[in-house]
Write a structure and sequence with these properties.
CATH class of one domain: Mainly Alpha
Strand content: under 5%
Radius of gyration: 17 Å
Number of helices: 8
Helix content: over 70%
Structural class: mainly alpha
Distance between the termini: 40 Å
Oligomer: single chain
Length: 186
């Protein structure tokens, strides 16, 4: 377990022991990555915000039982993945890209940049969102777990319930297709 993973596990133990500030540090450290993972999968800002809250409530509830058998981020993204799958099952609907607007990659409460920088970022974020939306769901999920969650191929395979080679193939095909789609936009 790496230094950051150990620090995360220690923070969660301290929170379980009653130190609220430890939870706040964990939240600040990982909120953005979880947010992007959820938003890029559901492509609906309101639903992503709801899921983000559910994930962190689940983390808070599970803190006393947490056993660091894997990296904290693996545990955290497993929770996020389960909430995402449950939400997609509940929703069973497709959200159009138009609902993303220009804030596709915007983070709640994030400061706004200069107009030109904001427009360029929105254009790039929009292109990425459109490209991600065109990936098959299993490939998109595997790629986002690795990109946003920092999970290894082994962790992606375990979390998604597929074999190592399948996860590796999904990631390879997702990256290749994403490069292809993004090069078409350039």
């Amino acid at each position: 377990m790496g230094e950051d993973a150990e620090a995360d596990a220690q923070l969660l133990r301290r929170y379980a022991g009653g130190e609220a500030a430890a939870f706040e540090r964990l939240y600040q450290r990982h909120e953005r990555r979880v947010w992007h993972y959820l938003l890029r999968n559901v492509r609906n800002r309101a639903l992503a915000e709801e899921l983000l809250q559910e994930v962190w409530f689940a983390v808070a509830r599970a803190a006393p039982q947490y056993q660091p058998t894997a990296r904290f981020t693996t545990w955290l993204f497993t929770i996020a993945h389960h909430h995402l799958v449950d939400a997609l099952r509940r929703e069973r609907r497709s959200v159009s890209l138009e609902t993303l607007g220009m804030e596709a990659d915007g983070f709640p409460g994030e400061e706004r940049a200069e107009p030109f920088a904001r427009a360029a970022a929105a254009e790039q974020g929009g292109a990425l969102a459109r490209a991600l939306a065109q990936l098959p769901g299993e490939q998109r999920d595997a790629l986002l777990l690795q990109m946003e969650g920092g999970l290894s191929v082994e962790e992606v395979a375990a979390l998604t319930g597929c074999g190592f080679e399948t996860a590796k193939s999904r990631l390879r095909y997702a990256r290749a297709r994403l490069r292809e789609l993004l090069s078409e936009c350039a």
